Amino acid sequence: GGHCVFHSPSCMALAFATRPGLDSHRVSSVLDAARVARLASPSPGRATHGACRGVAVRASKDDDSLFRPRRSKAVAFAQFMTGVALRFSVWRARLKREARNVMNPLEQEQPDYNLNVLPLLLPVRPAGKGEYSVSTKLWRKTVYWARLHNRLTANKVGDSEITGKVVVLGGGAFGTAMAAHLARKGNPVVLVMRDKLVRDYINTKHINPRYLSEFDLPLNLRASTQAAAELADCKALIVAVPVQSSRKALEAVAQYVPKGIPVVALSKGLELGSREFMCDLIPHALGRSREENPVVVVSGPSFAKEIMDQRPTAVVAASADPAAASVVQRLLMSPYFRVSTTDDVVGVEIAGALKNVLAIAAGMCEGLGLGMNAMSALICQGTAEIRWLATAMGAKPETLAGLAGIGDILLTCFGTLSRNRTLGVRIGQGEALDEILGSSGGVTEGVFTARLVVELADRYRVLLPVLTAVARILNGEVSARKAVFEVLSLPSLPESA
To answer: Are 180 and 215 a contacting pair, CB within 8 Å?
Structure first.
């Protein structure tokens, strides 16, 4: 017999996974335990070491029957540790939120506005012969125009044409936020995911223990791992899977997606293999035409955490099918969530993908300590580059000046919740890319998109100094400091569009 002491869940999982005769379900449970314990620990490697110190498994090389009872106990222990880690991560997230509320009491207040209701009252007419001020005149004109526009368009804001079940594919941060948002409006929502442990936690505790765990989920939102059963009678499918995983996920459920329902894409970026945006990837993965399942791309300045906190948010729904865009608009609109529509899918997709690359550059400026002046200059140059490439690919310039363009760029480049910006900050501070990606909790799409930006620039013959510099840095061709100063020292040219 042998004696082994496992000092971390990863070591324990590896040992059991390589043991002959161990079924895949038990291997998956142990691996889940290792992964969750590692994610939940404040300092990776320290808590997991302490959690499993002293766990010993004795095995006989000649008699496997002696190993099986202990193996079952080890699997049970791993599942127990997974539950402990999930509860600990929820407790820690909620403690942090309580601390923020103490520091800023205004965050606890629930908004009492409705972004989709027009101002009912015009400014009061001055008494006597007094005249309106210029500001009052302009506001009265604005209100009159808004009322006329509503009458002409007969816009019934908030009355969704989709009253049945909505399926959200992907249980990450943004998928969870959008599922909760739709559930608050009264729609029955199902969050389809792979992790059974998270599924059970959501259905019993109404909390996602991995993402946004400081928030309670609506009771009419449930999680499932059975995509086939849930998709059979759904009225809309929302894809919140990272771009690089979307094709595989959609191909696996393609035969179960009902024809005629809109497919909403929330992910932003380009697929590495095919070089396709989501508007092209989704029809190809489903094996359907755009007429059979119209694709609607939703983009704009929208952090998942602020959606969960019901903060004012405005996005754009883009589709080649105006009717589908209108249906999704009414599906998503709420008192704190405003949706515009456009048919410029190309512009929305390009802006949504390339702003992640620009956010990495902005983060590098902060990590290098160059100040807001340099960061603003770099973002300004990068925004122009996105517009140059987008218009070369057929996008409308006004799209790049709207919510999906400059709106999302400003949020991602200056917002502290941006994963792409955070990655840039850490690179600027000298951390290695592999270490950053290994320790980050979510997917940083800008890393993948940066590799394809230079190919698009070369194909459409557009010079993109800032975006190209990010690709060079991520490829290890140049240091962040040298690349930033090389870009800022390019010849000064007259300002132009």
So the answer is: yes
Contact 264, 236 (CB under 8 A): yes
Bridge-based pairing of strands 337-342 and 236-239 is unpaired
Asked whether the CA dihedral 275, 281, 284, 285 is positive or negative, the reply is: positive
What residues have CB less than 8 Å from 191, skipping those under 6 apart? Answer: 168, 171, 175, 176, 179, 202, 221, 222, 223, 224
pLDDT in the model for residue 110: 61
Going along 220-348, which residue ranges are E strands?
A: 221-224, 236-239, 263-265, 295-299, 313-318, 337-342
For residue 144, give both structure tokens. Answer: 């009159």
Q: Exposed, middle or buried by CB within 10 Å (0-12, 13-18, 19+), for 87?
A: middle
Whether the CB-CB separation of 267 and 243 falls below 8 Å is answered with yes
For the record, the structure tokens of 45 come out as: 């490697």
Nearest to 244 by CA among 265, 268, 210, 262: 268
Crossing angle of helices 465-474 and 345-367, rounded to 10°: 60
Residues of the chain with pLDDT under 70: 1-71, 105-113, 116-123, 125-130, 154-160, 441-442, 496-497
Q: How far, in Å, CA of 343 to CA of 394, rounded?
A: 12
Beta bridge partners of 6: 55
Name residue 5's beta-bridge partners: 56
- Residue 4 β-bridge partners: 57
The CA R_g of the chain, rounded to the nearest whole Å, is 26
How many angstroms separate the CA atoms of 354 and 392, rounded? 14
pLDDT at site 488:
87
Non-local (6+) Cβ contacts of 431 within 8 A are none
In angstroms, the CA 162 to CA 324 distance is 11
Query: What is the rounded CA–CA span in Å between residue 34 and residue 399?
Result: 45
User: Can you give the pLDDT at residue 119?
Assistant: 62
Q: Percent helix, strand, coil in the chain (nearest 5)?
A: 55, 10, 35
The candidate with the shortest Cα–Cα distance to 378, out of 270, 497, 474, 470, is: 470
Instruction: Note the pLDDT of residue 105.
Output: 64
Partners of 58 in the β-ladder: 3
- Rounded distance, CA 493 to CA 416, Å? 32
The answer to whether the beta carbons of residues 317 and 348 sit under 8 Å apart is no
pLDDT in tens, 260-305: 999 999 999 889 888 899 999 999 999 999 899 999 999 999 999 9
Of 469, 473, 471, 466, give the one whose Cα is nearest residue 430: 473
Residues taking part in catalysis: 355
* pLDDT (0 to 100) of residue 322: 92
